[in-house]
Amino acid sequence: MAERSQEGYLIEFRQIGQSVKVSAVDPVSKMEVSIVGAARAPRQQLIQTAIRKLEYVMKKNNNI
């Protein structure tokens, strides 16, 4: 399932057993990152972690 964050990033969830893969995509730069977390973790916590990773990678690559 995909949704859009308040920052405008695309967020996708894919559950795999007891884990969930969360992908965050910046639609402008087309940069994508993924994290894996516990399926029972709070959804907002997973979203925030994925966004922090995306912003870190974008800053590291001078895309922000």
Give me the side-by-side strand order of the main sheet.
1-2-3-4
Strand portion, in percent? 35-45%
The shape is elongated
Order of helices and strands: EEEEH
**Domains (count):** 1
Task: Report the C-alpha radius of gyration, rounded.
Answer: 11 Å
How many individual β-strands? 4
Number of helices: 1
SS-derived structural category: alpha+beta
For the sheet with most strands, the description reads: 4 strands, antiparallel
Proportion of residues in helical segments: 25-40%
End-to-end C-alpha gap: 26 Å
Mean pLDDT: 92
Q: Which regions are unreliable across 5 or more consecutive residues at pLDDT < 50?
A: none
Description:
The chain is of the alpha+beta class and 64 residues long. The protein has one domain (2-60). Helix content is 28%, strand content 38%. It has one helix at 43-60, and strands at residues 2-4, 10-16, 19-25, 32-38. It has a four-stranded antiparallel sheet. It is elongated and about 35 Å long. The model has no long low-confidence stretch (mean pLDDT 92).
Please provide a brief summary of the model.
With 64 residues, the protein is α+β, with helices and mostly antiparallel strands.
Topology, please?
Layout: E1 2-4, E2 10-16, E3 19-25, E4 32-38, H1 43-60
Antiparallel strand pairs: 1-2, 2-3, 3-4
Keywords:
single chain; 64 residues; alpha+beta; 4-stranded antiparallel β-sheet; 1 helix
